[in-house]
Task: inverse folding
């Protein structure tokens, strides 16, 4: 059996440029690459007839975050909720979650202000422009 190694964490977005701007400018991730993939083999692989994917790869401290905008786009969108079966979120650490929260632009949505969990970690969930959840965590000492 082949040993598996992590390559990326991906999420589909409706507007790649807007998403890249958020992940780069608000979260501070570095853009590693931008590219487009299309053709019959790609369409077959992703199970979408006539698909073209516009991709951006960003670096989150050694974890590759992949954002992809598809054409054609499927407009089935359900509000992201952390307790929905199959829900996903990206978790990023910071040294000061309160400082991060205070620095957020006014138009960035959050589920609440920073909270301290039973484990002593401080957490905050923000939404990217697509409504995807991102957990910002200040781990307990």
Result:
């Amino acid at each position: 059996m082949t040993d598996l190694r992590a390559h990326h964490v991906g999420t589909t977005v409706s507007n790649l440029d807007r998403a890249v701007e958020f992940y780069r400018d608000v979260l501070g991730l570095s853009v590693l690459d931008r590219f487009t993939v299309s053709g019959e083999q790609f369409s077959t692989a992703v199970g979408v007839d006539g698909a073209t994917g516009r991709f951006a790869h960003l670096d989150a401290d050694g974890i590759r975050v992949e954002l992809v905008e598809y054409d054609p786009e499927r407009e089935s969108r359900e509000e992201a909720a952390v307790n929905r079966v199959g829900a996903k979120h990206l978790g990023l650490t910071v040294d000061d979650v309160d400082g991060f929260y205070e620095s957020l632009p006014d138009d960035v949505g959050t589920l609440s202000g920073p909270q301290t969990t039973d484990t002593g970690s401080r957490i905050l969930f923000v939404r990217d422009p697509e409504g995807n959840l991102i957990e910002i965590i200040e781990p307990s000492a």
Notes: The helical segments are 16-26, 40-46, 97-103.
